């Protein structure tokens, strides 16, 4: 863990970046889930740690302050703060695995150009970590809904135009794939 890590700092960055996450999430239920989580996160923050963390983020140019017309201060994540928050969100992103498989395959295909090699490598590492199965070079399959993750990553890394997300009911000779995912 980084030397300056503390849970309060992570919560504050997450809270400041929630607006960005809301903009990437198209699902009304997803919005409700994010807002509920925000309420719980605020309730758990110690006031002293909050002040220390805000000073820490300000010194590192992750947040900035703006004065409202009524004299109150507004804390806003800078572009760098938003970027760091999104990177943390991608690392922590979890896919909800239902109790029963819906018998649909999620296929992610990408052909990302060399000038976006870093984004391509990050996408590949993340889908490997989630345990997608590589069918062939840059063609990956997964049995559960993961569109939010793929949309989030492709938007953040600006590679949406190079990535295709497909939902399929059948993959030819998919018995081996089912066994690998322990679906039967």
Task: Summarize the model shown.
By secondary structure, this protein is of the alpha+beta class. The chain is 49% helix and 16% strand.
How would you characterize the overall build of this protein?
With 184 residues, this protein is α+β, with helices and mostly antiparallel strands. The chain has 2 domains: 7-92, Arc Repressor Mutant, subunit A (Orthogonal Bundle), CATH 1.10.10; 105-180, Alpha-Beta Plaits (2-Layer Sandwich), CATH 3.30.70. Helices cover 49% and strands 16% of the residues. The chain has helices spanning 7-24, 28-43, 47-59, 79-92, 117-129, 147-156, 175-180, and strands spanning 63-67, 73-77, 105-110, 133-136, 139-142, 163-168. It has a 4-stranded antiparallel sheet with strand order 4-5-3-6, with helices on one face. The chain has a two-stranded antiparallel ribbon with strand order 1-2. A hairpin with a 2-residue loop joins strand 4 (133-136) and strand 5. The longest helix is centred in the first third of the chain and has 18 residues, at 7-24. The chain is elongated.
Mean pLDDT: 82
Q: How many structural domains in the coordinates?
A: 2
Number of helices: 7
The count of DSSP E runs of length 2 or more, i.e. the number of strands, is: 6
Biggest sheet strand order reads 4-5-3-6
């Amino acid at each position: 863990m980084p030397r300056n890590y503390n849970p309060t700092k992570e919560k504050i960055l997450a809270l400041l970046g929630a607006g960005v996450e809301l903009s990437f999430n198209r699902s009304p239920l997803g919005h409700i889930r994010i807002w509920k989580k925000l309420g719980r996160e605020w309730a758990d923050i110690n006031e002293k740690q909050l002040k220390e963390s805000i000073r820490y983020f300000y010194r590192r140019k992750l947040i900035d302050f703006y004065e409202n017309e009524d004299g109150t201060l507004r804390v806003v994540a800078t572009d760098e703060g938003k970027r760091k928050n999104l990177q943390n969100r991608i690392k922590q992103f979890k896919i909800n695995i239902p109790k029963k498989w819906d018998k649909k395959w999620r296929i992610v295909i990408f052909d990302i150009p060399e000038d976006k090699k870093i984004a391509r490598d990050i996408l590949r590492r993340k889908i490997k970590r989630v345990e997608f199965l590589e069918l062939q070079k840059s063609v990956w399959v997964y049995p559960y809904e993961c569109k939010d993750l793929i949309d989030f990553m492709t938007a953040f890394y600006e590679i949406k135009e190079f990535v295709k997300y497909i939902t399929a009911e059948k993959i030819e000779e998919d018995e081996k794939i089912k066994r690998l995912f322990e679906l039967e």
